[in-house]
Amino acid sequence: MRQLINTLSFGLLFCCLTACGDRLELAPEQSISGELATATEANVRNILVGAYAEAGKDESYGGQMQFMADLLGAGDRISWVGTFLDPRQVVTKDILTDNNFIALFWNNHYATINQANLVLDNLDKIESDPEERNRIEGEARFLRGLCYFDLVRHFGSGDMGVPLRTTGISDYAVDLSLDRSPTSAIYDLILADLQTSVDILPGSNSFFADEYSAQALLARVNLQLGNYEVARTAANNVILNSGRMLTADYAGAFNNDENSTEDLFAFQVTSQDGQNDLINHYADEENGGRGGDIIVTDAYLTLFTDTLDVRGDYFYASRQSGNRLTGKYSNQFGNIALIRLAEMYLIRAETNLRLDTEVGASPLADLNTIRARAGAELLEDDDDNIEDDISINTILEERFRELAFEGFFIHDIRRLGLSVDGFDADANELVFPIPQSEIDTNPAITQNPGYN
């Protein structure tokens, strides 16, 4: 993000493009026209920069998306002790349609999608170099696919997906009413966007999305969909060819001012730019937080019967309350790792187990790679029968240990048909409501079941 500071001063452009694409709002009088904003190659580049900055705000990938998913799916493993009512509604599964945290999440994702769409609508302005045009297109498709994936995971209900917009909006004076597209149509776009990104992005791209960022996200999406062979192939390719490697120790994967060796995609945070809302709610005051709104309970520690596993001790006591807080967020200017290589090992392990294959490595070997880095006792292969050694539950528990407090809880529960806090995986309470502000301004949209 250090390289973005100057370009983000393109303020008028950014202001006119950050309004949510689904909100029926008029562009402010001082905004420049959409035609002018996209008139040159330099302007289109700046829209892409603005899309990254928008996505990295605290309302979404700056932390709110991750901890809201944790609060929805963690059950008794964490507890909300903060004063804000909106996150507490998520914990109790009694969410109101005017929940502001959820509305900001929705609006921010559509603002990012709109900027990505404007870039894609104006690729003809990129005349300097075909490879540069591919890079810009690939990054825009990556961001759009990422945002739609998290929108449909959090707001999709059965066959009802979310509003699907694939054209940028620059004129907010027209009727923007739009109902929800089928879930299948949303996933079709996500998969197409990410595959195109894999095909046209470079193998390395500074801290921006590259070929392996897109392929890693493609692995995550296909795991969610149950497309295990595709997920396995993508995860395996990332492990073998991305050049990333696990950090030498578990703590090295977090609180980094620069991307770590295992970051496949991370949002950049500095003292001048970027936001880390995970710090705000997971950390105490000395580490830049509010004192520790989200605490780790004894129930989470029951996952660690192995005293050698450093992940079972990667916590600290709040200086204010003495409550147990995760050590993953203690640097208020640390980058937010959205996709780590460790996840790819776990995806490859699960998909190989489900398919009874050993592409790249056996499921046992991949689990032990993750456990060895954490100092945990290695799992043993007694009789070369994979199913006797480990199970899907074994891998799920390893995911809970390795990926905790990174926004995975609810999605693993829903895709595996589990329950949380007495609610089945398909319960209405485990899906966010369409924000009331969207219902009020978009008469074509349908609310999720269970919400009035």
UniProtKB/TrEMBL annotation:
Keyword line: Cell outer membrane, Membrane, Signal
Name recorded for this polypeptide: RagB/SusD family nutrient uptake outer membrane protein
Residue ranges that the Swiss-Prot or TrEMBL entry lists as coiled coil: none
Family per similarity comment: Belongs to the SusD family.
SusD-like N-terminal domain span: 38-223
Principal location listed in the UniProt entry: membrane
Subcellular location: Cell outer membrane
Domain RagB/SusD positions: 329-420
Source taxon at top rank: Bacteria
